[in-house]
């Protein structure tokens, strides 16, 4: 169910990516009455005289107007952003939100409600489990979360505007098992997925480079690593934070990490400075 025409892109420009040129117009003060009269009289006299021939203006045969275009001095070139430790931690954490749930290739121009809600569902299970409720309908137990919570997550991570109207075409949750998908379903202002557990989310994304483009977007190149299962199962929050803070060099040298693949994401900036996803793909 494509919702391209119903999801509105947020129009934002990242800091430093746009150069605005301004000009100031000077205002000429009003002339005094005496001066205006004198000027008028002088003009009448000059109009009775023979007009002097205009002097021709010589131009160079070799002059190229394009070469003297002042706008050429303001061409903005893409440039790589050097990350400090806090920025490295932020971009690693941001990308890991997608990597850890095996996020599929994404383009905001063709995004569907199902794709966005699949992201929200797993994101809440990993990072905000208290937002998940369990409800039984007939023979099936469902994991549910509110449309309001889904909207909050989507607006935090994606350059799209999502409302409850985007959910109303989803089917209602069934009461018996069949050949239907596990979700998402919609009913009573909530999103429903058939309950399932046992997944492991031990992937992490380490950002290799951040390129500030000329169009207000940012390109992120990253490497996906899996954390050793035994190590992952013993990690507390401090241990997870240590992985999120790694540089590419540290990750490549860490024996508890196994390289899986690489990926590229294009983002823009929200007014808060947070990244918002436009597209995402892995190699």
How many strand units? 10
Mean pLDDT: 81
Uncertain segments of ≥5 residues (pLDDT<50)? 4-62
Structural class: alpha+beta
Shape summary: globular
Spatial gap, N to C terminus:
26 Å
Strand order of the largest sheet: 1-7-8-9-10-2
Main beta sheet strand tally, sense and closure: 6 strands, antiparallel
Number of helices: 7
Strand content: 15-25%
The helicity comes to 25-40%
One letter per element, helices H and strands E, the order comes to: HEHEHEEHEEEEHHHEE
Radius of gyration: 30 Å
Task: Describe the protein.
The protein is of the alpha+beta class. The strands form two sheets. Strands 1-7-8-9-10-2 form a six-stranded antiparallel beta sheet. β5 and β6 form a beta hairpin. The protein starts with 32 loop residues before the first helix and ends with a strand. About 21% of the residues have low confidence.
For the structure shown, list the relevant keywords:
single chain, 283 residues, alpha+beta, four-stranded antiparallel β-sheet, 27% helix
Ordered list of secondary-structure elements with their pairings:
Elements: H1 33-47, E1 79-80, H2 85-99, E2 106-107, H3 113-127, E3 133-137, E4 140-146, H4 147-157, E5 185-187, E6 190-194, E7 203-212, E8 218-227, H5 229-233, H6 237-244, H7 248-253, E9 257-269, E10 275-282
Antiparallel strand pairs: 1-7, 2-10, 3-4, 4-6, 5-6, 7-8, 8-9, 9-10
Structure in a nutshell:
This protein has 283 residues and is an alpha+beta fold. It is built from seven helices and ten strands. The radius of gyration is 30 Å and the shape is globular.
